[in-house]
Amino acid sequence: MMVRDRVTFWYPSRKAEASHADRGDGRRRDRWYLGGRLAAVGEDVAFVARSAHLEALRRDGLRIESPFGDLHLPQVAATDDPARIGPVDLVLFTVKLYDSETAAAALGPLVGPHTRVLTLQNGIDSLDILARYVPSGQLVGGSIYVAASIARPGVISVPGGSRRLVVGQASDPVVQALREVCERGVGIEIETVGDVAPVLWEKFVILCAFAGATSLMRAGIGAILADPEARVFIEQLRDEGFAVAAASGHPVPEERRPKMMALWQSLPPETRSSMANDLARGKPLELEWLSGRMHALGTDLGVPTPAHTAVYRALHLHAHPS
User: Fold this and answer.
1) Which CATH number among 3.40.50.720, 3.40.220.10, 3.40.50.2020, 3.20.20.70 corresponds to the domain 7-194?
2) pLDDT tens per residue across span 101-111
């Protein structure tokens, strides 16, 4: 039996982000995929959306195009005002990192005494940011590995690769309910763990390398791995991440390390990080929380990070387009 009656997928509405309305939409594409999969098995899912995507959701519903199974939901609940939704059982917090503070400050109408806020953001700072706005006992960390993109408003494309979702606090009843729902559906492989910190650090290492390489080299993962010098560079980014994680007290186990390369190799060759796509579109970048964070940690810990420092300094000019 489900203990939830509504799940909300959140990113800043126009009201919440009025001062940033022209910067881009601030969304993570994988949230549309996950929300659609949950709604397909009968969950009451509400999307906080805006602009052309809100219009498309209201007019045409949500479509997912994926080798894991195409999906069309002709009617979905979507609004640009979280107050119209009210308290829910689970909030999926999936905004881009540069919008975290604004979005977190606007969570109030969605959070009741029994609500859980599950953050699937990139990086290692999300839980600390959210804890300034939501009681820490109601926060859950997690990580999602889905290469999703928006083909057009209301249509999400997932070309293949991973469909993995890892969520912490495995014994929490809301997390257990989420696991049951995902296991009933298709297109999501969920794992729940007691301690999510190792998962977040491993994702941090692999994503910083992937995002830094595909952004700086303006190339898909296939071309990078096929070129000997480019491959050395992404491996250097990865290895610097291992060193920083270890010095921070979160070493990535040796047996996990080969799986990072296997994950990259499993992706369609044209796959790029969302940061690379945002760079190409002239949108803000999560650079400060990825290679920029690696650079800062390396400086503080005395760990050399020349590759991540190069990514950070080379892309800093483009991180905050006017």
Assistant:
1) 3.40.50.720
2) 999 998 999 99
